[in-house]
Amino acid sequence: KQAEKNNRKIPCLLQVHIALEDSKFGFSEDELIALLESEEIKTLGHVQVIGLMGMATFTDNDAQIKSEFEGLKNLFTQLQSSSLPENIEMKELSIGMSGDYLLAQEAGSTMVRIGTAIFGERNYN
Fold first, then answer.
1. Strand 88-97 relative to strand 47-54: parallel, antiparallel, unpaired?
2. pTM of the predicted model as reported, rounded to 2 decimal places
3. pLDDT digits over 1-38, tens only?
4. pLDDT (tens digit, 9 = 90+) per residue, 33-59?
5. How open is the CA angle 120-121-125, to the nearest 5 degrees?
6. How far apart are the first and last CA of the chain?
């Protein structure tokens, strides 16, 4: 509604739950497909979905992280070749953070979040 008031189109990513942790959130694959196929999303003329994002399990197990990233990349690729509403374009895949950005890059990430590498660890007091 605010984008419409300001005559803007807001680019956004849809977060998919890929981690094996309850502390991470996002759409399941089935929920995502249902949303993309819904009539409701077509009515969001001031929202431009430009891709997907996901956060891997917080672990030192590179094989686990790689598997989660590759699963999301496969879904992303599948959606790129499907018929999507006009306001949805799969061009960005945001996976990876400071600790796993190299694995994300290998998996096809187009965007990584590296705040910790730049600003240091957060203080959660």
1. parallel
2. 0.89
3. 899 999 999 999 999 999 998 888 999 999 999 999 99
4. 999 999 999 999 999 999 999 999 999
5. 135
6. 35
Q: How confident is the model at residue 123 (pLDDT cuts 50, 70, 90)?
A: confident
Q: Can you tell me whether residue 13 is helix, strand or coil? A: strand
Retrieve residue 106's tokens.
């290998």
What does the alpha-carbon distance between residue 47 and residue 4 come to, in Å, rounded to a whole number?
A: 9
| Structural domain 2-119, CATH architecture | Alpha-Beta Barrel (3.20)
CA-nearest of 26, 10, 97, 16 to 52 is 16
**Which amino acid, one-letter code, is at 99?**
G
CB-based contact 58:67 (threshold 8 Å): no
Structural domain spans, the chain: 2-119
User: What does the mean pLDDT of the chain come to?
Assistant: 93
Contacts of 90 (CB under 8 A, 6+ apart): 50, 51, 52, 76, 79, 80, 84
